[in-house]
Amino acid sequence: MPALQRTEAILRASLLDVRSYTIDLDVTRGPDVFGSTTVIRFGCAEPGSDSFVDLEPVELRRAVLNGRPLDPADLDGNRLALPGLAAENELLVEADMRYSRTAEGLHRYTDPADGEVYLYASCAPDLAPKVFACFDQPDLKAPIRLGVTLPQGWKAFANGAPAGPGEEGRREFAETKPISTYLFTVVAGPLHSVAGEHDGIPLGLHARRSLAAELEREADELFEVTRASFDRLHELFEERYPFGEYHQAFMPEFNWGAMENPGCVVFRDEMLFRSTPTDADRESRAMVICHEMAHMWFGDLVTMKWWDDLWLNESFAEMLGYRVAAESTRFTLAWVGFAARRKAWGYDADQRGSTHPVAGNGTRSVAEAVVNFDGISYAKGASVLRQLVAWLGDEAFFAGINAYFARHRYGNAELADFLAALGEASGKDVHGWAEQWLRTSGVDTLRVEVERDGAKVRSVAVVNEGSRPHLVGVGGYAMVEPYLRAWPGAPAVEVPAGGRVLVPALVEDQPELVVPNHGDLTWAKIRLDEASWQVVTESLAQVEDGLTRALLWDHARDLVRDGELAPAEYLRLVERHLGGETVVSTVEAVLAFAVNDVAGRYLAPERRAAGLAVVAGAARSLLFGADVTPNLRQAALRGALESSVGEAELAELQAWLAGDGLPGGVSLSPELRWVALARLAARGRAGEPEFGAELARDPGTEAEVGAARARAARPEPDAKARAWQAMFTDGELSNHLIRATAEGFWRSGAEEQQQEYVRRYFAELLGAARRGDAVVRMLGHFLFPRGYATAETVRLAEECLRADGLTPALRRVIGDELDDLRRAQRVREA
Ligand SMILES: [Zn+2]
Q1: Which of 57, 372, 504, 661 has its CA at 20 to 30 Å from residue 789's CA atom?
Q2: Positions of E strands within 454-491
Q3: How many angstroms separate the CA atoms of 230 and 10, rounded?
């Protein structure tokens, strides 16, 4: 049965009005299945008509509609027909459901550290029917009442507050406010918990027992960010937090960063940092906490009517996540992280063939929805909203937002509703703005033209080569040793679509460097005048403002991708200027691009080792430099590990693993030890004895992930064969182990043998698609042979895309990788 189509959803929503769900789950029936009993009460606008309910059971035991038994054999795929509905209906469904190993439905995880079992439900976008029978579409909201039968000693948390103290082996939850089915969750197991409270809201933090120490260590910061974010959101929004208690559960093997289930957000438990985090990791986590909290309003209180308006959830949560983190927590540089790390995700997506408008992404079925959780819906949408706020001003923007909440609370909305509220509040032509910014795709370019007479600046202009108006700052910089410093109050200019605007204020200042999009208020590629670029190549690290440095590093990245700057020139920038960079997220972004993209695919294979040596050198200068903060050293350490290929460097890695040679303040924490081991394994310098010792030293899920990557990185034919077999065998590996194995796989191996795997990859990928979207994303992205940017790989990928029966998820991931492969070819040819 295909995924729900938009046309079907519209019809069903016009017919049904769901009054309530009463769900009973029994998770005491062993490792494979759980019991799921659901009573749905719902009205039908046209009595006598038919509809259907969604469920994906192992076995449908019983279904009773208005006292009339339905034949379980009538279950057709994931749908059960509901014939002859009354004005008011009651449907009872009793079923056995299967636990998930891929975090799609009710995920069951056994902790290798202590054998304890944990569960959590992950229902977005259309996985709720794997947990309970429901009308699974965002605009059929209803209150949910949940009860769970549990093994002895377990705790459980869910969307509703615990109802009463509960008894051993059983937990009831209070009825929720009306919520969409994709937002349902329950989290259960012998959890370790930390309780708190803020402003009348009960708070809870939860994790598996083997992470109790990490949870206790992190609890202060997690609560601090949560409290600050609640306070800020309560200042911005007139509606108070609407869902009672606020639990944050850190769970293993999660597919996303976090999920905004009302009352009970699930995070991937890597965010509890078993290994030493940098401040950029902490900043990202703070942003995610704020992002999920913003979702309580954008997404949960008011929900998009259909998946084509995903941006109404994600773009807003993303923009507010960064804004609230920057304004109200200690992570005041959050917007620098956005510029340095997050925007590239969106810029890349916006320049691929699969790009789409921010609003109205064209989603016809839920199967297509999942592919739009992408850089457009998140990074571009957030950036575009920043531009909107710059244009409207805070006051009108939030007045519009508050009117939108008041009108649609506990309901659903679409683009037109949002624009109506904003138009009324601002009196501006928001519809016209939306046509240009939200209904079109692609990225504009803003070019600076500077006329000089010798050293004297005669005129400065910004040329908008795109199709949208931009309100941007233009920064003028001059050297005030040791800094390239901007004059305060960089002028803001409105540059119409296709227009050219002079900036006379900058002529007075006689700048050496002119930077468009100063302050990063818009979504655009930039191009500097030649003299300014010269200043960047000589003095990038001396630019005083961290946000501008992030923009300029990103600009250099863009030039490489467009074939306008040789990859080797980018590495020269890294060599010269990375040592002077003080913002951790920028250092991490530059090192990752230099290793994975510049050396990993833009340089020809025979030049990769030399390219990596440059990165390794730059990372080591930062790692061992004087006056470098522990945070920067920690970021440099990862870069140094990832770029080590030379004999001397590998010997150094072995010394670091043995506890020798690292500067004070940094350490090879468990995750980085496995990064080092994977690099050594790829060069035949580490194998089972080393892996075994490391697994014994620090057992657990993280070690198993690290070992999977390191084993797949070994060059021997039997290591490759085992890794391949495990990745392509159904149910053998969890998603995280598939990803780790994929990450290791292409790091070594005889050329002919690996070429054969490139061919097998495209031949076997189609068959793997039946294992679900999560597996497709892991294999399609992480195992894609991106280092092989050859005509043959392009041909094989094209052929794969022409095959019959591709799922939307597979088509998207292979299409995007093929786009990137062609880009890599163009860069090499340039
Ligand atoms: Zn989100």
Answers
A1: 372
A2: 456-464, 470-480, 483-486
A3: 35
**Do the beta carbons of residue 63 and residue 93 sit within 8 Å?**
yes
Which tens digit of pLDDT belongs to each residue from 45-102? 999 999 999 999 999 999 999 999 999 999 999 999 999 999 999 999 999 999 999 9
Active site residues: 292
The confidence score (pLDDT) of residue 360 equals: 80
Kindly give the distance from the C-alpha atom of residue 311 to the centroid of ligand 1, in angstroms, as a whole number.
9
- How far apart (Å, rounded) are the C-alpha atoms in residues 480 and 487? 11
Q: Separation of 667 CA from ligand 1 center, angstroms?
A: 33
Q: Please tell me the pTM assigned to this model.
A: 0.96
Provide the pLDDT for residue 592.
98
- Given the structure tokens 């708190």, which residue do they identify? 196
| 608-624 helix and 567-577 helix, angle to the nearest 10 degrees | 10
Cα–Cα distance, 589 to 583 (Å, whole number)? 10
Q: In DSSP terms, which residues pair with 173 in a beta bridge?
A: 162
Q: Is 254 helix (H, G, I), strand (E, B) or coil?
A: coil
- H helices of 50-128, where? none
- Give residue-wise pLDDT tens across range 266-304: 999 999 999 899 999 999 999 999 999 999 999 999 999
Q: Rounded to whole angstroms, what are the CA distances from 762 to 139, 741, 771, 796, 824? A: 38, 17, 16, 7, 19
Beta bridge partners of 246: 203
What separation in Å is there between the alpha carbon of 23 and the centre of ligand 1? Answer: 26
Mean pLDDT, residues 612-624 taken together: 97
Task: Specify the pLDDT at position 616.
Answer: 97
Phi-psi region of 729 (alpha: psi -120 to 50; beta: other; left: phi over 0): beta
Task: Give yes or no for a contact between 51 and 62, defined as CB atoms under 8 angstroms apart.
Answer: no
Neighbours of 535 (CB within 10 A): 22
* H helix count then E strand count, the chain: 28, 28
Distance 293 CA to ligand 1 centre (A): 9
Q: Are 370 and 774 in contact (CB under 8 A)?
A: no
Residues 110-154 have pLDDT tens digits of 999 999 999 999 999 999 999 999 999 999 999 999 999 999 999
CA geometry: angle at 108 spanning 688 and 779, to 5°?
Answer: 55
Rounded Cα–Cα distance for residues 94 and 62 (Å): 5
When the pLDDT of each residue in the chain is averaged and rounded to a whole number, the result is 96
CA of 385 to the centre of ligand 1 (A): 15
Compute, in angstroms, the gap from residue 294 CA to the centroid of ligand 1. Answer: 9
483 CA from centroid of ligand 1 (Å): 38
Contacts of 2 (CB under 8 A, 6+ apart): 365, 367
What confidence score (pLDDT) does residue 2 get? 67
Give the Å distance between the CA of 498 and the centre of ligand 1. Answer: 34
Measured in angstroms, how far is the CA atom of residue 544 from the centroid of ligand 1? 33
The model's pLDDT over 501-530, given as tens digits with 9 standing for 90+, comes to: 999 999 988 999 999 999 999 999 999 999
